[in-house]
Design brief:
By secondary structure, the chain is of the alpha+beta class. 21% of the residues lie in helices and 28% in strands. It has helices at 28-36, 68-71, 116-121, 130-136, 172-183, 193-196, 219-228, 272-277, 288-302, and strands at residues 4-13, 18-26, 54-67, 90-102, 105-109, 124-125, 144-148, 167-171, 206-209, 231-234, 237-241, 251-257, 260-264, 308-309, 327-329, 335-340. It binds zinc ion (ZN).
Length: 350
């Protein structure tokens, strides 16, 4: 069974100053027709000969001077401590987006954000529009055909109107969480600004994959998909639900590369060191058990922790986080890492 939605209208509510999409369910038959159409150039059967993808990490922005303990309680600063786990006061946290290229297909793992007023409130620096990040890599934003939102928070699910040809993949469970938050009485959530900034998913076609949706054309995989809740969006490129690992409908993205399988975790994997050391991170909305199970899933899929792609790892773009160490600095001070190149793909480093 496939559940899919598209945005049929966008409603502005003057009382709350919010824009919210009106979601209309489309039928399983319509979804299948789109997915299996010979006109769909993304049909995985047409990519059978292509099995490895290239991956870049781009830093959309950087939160500056965040107290380490507020990000990872196990790393809380203890004045005077010489223990490596407790002697760092503040950290700068990047917002990392994955740019994935499989053949000619360009996929984003998250899409960053551009709410410039909120940048100021959050001490953000080095903001770079996603369109500029892509152009730096020689990719036109119109080439992005798929965006997999690890979750739909403001710093990960923005800028969608700058990616005009993309289909957005988000779990139905995530939409349920968003609907709940948007329906919660405004007077009860004044102190929770994220609720007001949840959903920039307007004017973009929105497709919601329910648990178990969309592993197509292979009955054996269909069964496995139902059990694991996977969705294969290209051959070997798989969405894995990680419900409540950060938000209601968080999801992971598995990508095959020449460096092995990489799993993008959005904020289920806010910290790579957290995965390495089995410490929860960015726990405001997290069910810690589910976050640990999401960590475990990366170990299972990739064979370890090195290929887990974390959204806010403070050591990103340094030798300390080997996956993202091959990096350079872009025009806005943002950092860009070449994570894996498919055979024949050219380097984007000058
Ligand atoms: Zn985040």
């Amino acid at each position: 069974m496939v559940f899919a939605f598209e945005v049929s209208a966008v409603k502005f509510d003057a009382s709350t100053n919010e824009t919210r999409p009106i979601l209309t369910r489309i039928s399983a038959e319509e979804f299948a027709a789109i997915e299996n159409s010979p006109l769909n150039e993304n049909n995985p059967t047409e990519l059978a000969s292509q099995t490895l993808c290239s991956v870049w990490a781009v830093e959309v922005s950087r939160f500056m001077g965040v107290p380490y303990g507020s990000f990872m309680p196990d790393r809380a600063f203890v004045p005077g401590s010489d223990k490596p786990m407790h002697n760092i006061n503040t950290v700068d946290l990047p917002v990392n987006v994955g740019v994935i290229k499989c053949g000619d297909e360009v996929i984003l793992a998250d899409s960053g954000w551009k709410q410039t007023e909120y940048h100021k409130e959050t001490g953000t620096q080095h903001f770079t529009p996603i369109a500029d990040e892509l152009k730096d890599l020689g990719i036109d934003p119109s080439q992005v055909r798929k965006i997999v939102l690890g979750h739909a928070h403001w710093d990960h699910a923005g800028q969608l109107d700058d990616l005009p040809n993309a289909t957005v993949y988000v779990q139905r469970e995530e939409l349920r969480g968003i609907e709940w938050a948007l329906s919660y009485p405004p007077e009860n959530r004044r102190g929770q600004p994220e609720c007001r900034r949840l959903l920039p998913l307007a004017r973009v076609r929105l497709r919601a994959a329910d648990h178990g949706a969309g592993v197509r054309q292979d009955p054996a995989r269909q069964g496995r998909g139902r059990r694991d809740g996977e969705m294969e969006i290209l051959l070997g490129v798989r969405i894995h639900p990680a419900f409540r690992a950060h938000t209601n409908g968080s999801q992971l993205l598995e990508v095959p590369t020449a460096a092995g399988k990489i799993v993008f975790g959005s904020d289920a994997y806010s910290s790579w060191q957290g995965i390495r050391d089995w410490m929860p991170a960015n726990i405001q909305q997290t069910d810690t058990v589910q976050q640990m199970l999401a960590y475990e899933k990366c170990y299972k899929i990739t064979g370890g922790y090195n290929n887990c792609f974390a959204a806010h790892e403070p050591t990103s773009y340094t030798d300390q986080y080997p996956l993202l160490k091959d990096s350079r600095v872009g025009a806005h001070g943002e950092r860009i890492a070449e994570v894996a190149l498919a055979p024949g793909e050219k380097s984007r480093h000058p």
